Amino acid sequence: MDKPGKRLRDNGETLAYLRHEPKRPAGPTGIMWLGGFKSDMTGTKASALNDWAQRADRPFLRFDYFGHGLSSGDFAKGTISRWRADALDAFDHLTQGPQILVGSSMGGWIALLVALARPERIKGLVLIAPAPDFTQELMWKSFSPEIRQEIMTRGAYLRPSAHDEAPYAITRDLIEDGRQHLLLGAPIEIGLPVRILQGMADADVPWSHAARLVEALTSRDVTLHLSKDGDHRLSTPQDIERLTQEIGNLLRQIEG
Q1: What does each of the 256 residues of the chain score in pLDDT, given as a tens digit?
Q2: Domains plus CATH for the chain?
Q3: Containing H/E element for 91?
């Protein structure tokens, strides 16, 4: 793996990133990866997309949010606002020209927020098990009264993880800040082509959540691909192949 770059943010934090630059002249649409909650830029899908981008000679950017991977910061102090700001900073300073955003899980929410903030250069979205509003819809609403009380009085709840031995903190700041960025309760004014890949066996983000997103998006060019046996990760070789096919098809549509 190449040595990660480090971008110094205005707030003193550092944002770790990996970037593939194509050999051909500037002009081709680039790909920007937005990872999930507690994931990092070296995950299976991000690494596979980097390999694909190298073969396709495409610009590709992946990075770690505040408190994730090699970036600075305490994960427990992270919020949707802070991670959105990280993504916008990376987009503004580490990419050039037209871009497709590829967002996984929480990264799907962040991708939608970035697309709303930077519509000029973003040409399409590819979302994998997208989890917009997950702090409210998939966390808070599913918590028992006891867990809610613990979050509000103690400031955090240590939630067991299905993907890690150690629990992780769900903080009051995360929940309350997330409410500033909720999208599913109103039309999402994004007119871009959107491609959504969703597993029906996903235990973290139910496929009905993706269907709600399809309904909320104002774009007429939205497709939802459901994999009956697919889980939340969607990282099998077949899943990766489907992902790269969707990106390739979208690039051909965008670039003619």
Answers
A1: 678 999 998 889 999 999 999 887 666 899 999 999 999 999 999 999 999 999 999 999 999 999 999 999 999 999 999 999 999 999 999 999 999 999 999 999 999 999 999 999 999 999 999 999 999 999 999 999 999 999 999 999 998 877 677 888 999 999 999 999 999 999 999 999 999 999 999 999 999 999 999 999 999 999 999 999 999 999 999 999 999 999 999 999 999 8
A2: 5-134+184-255 (3.40.50.1820)
A3: helix 80-94
Indicate which residues carry an active-site annotation.
Answer: 105, 202, 232
- At residue 143, φ and ψ (nearest 5 deg) are -75, 145
In the structure encoding, which two tokens stand for residue 3, read together? Answer: 């040595």
Q: How far apart are CA 94 and CA 61, in angstroms?
A: 8
Contacts of 146 (CB under 8 A, 6+ apart): none
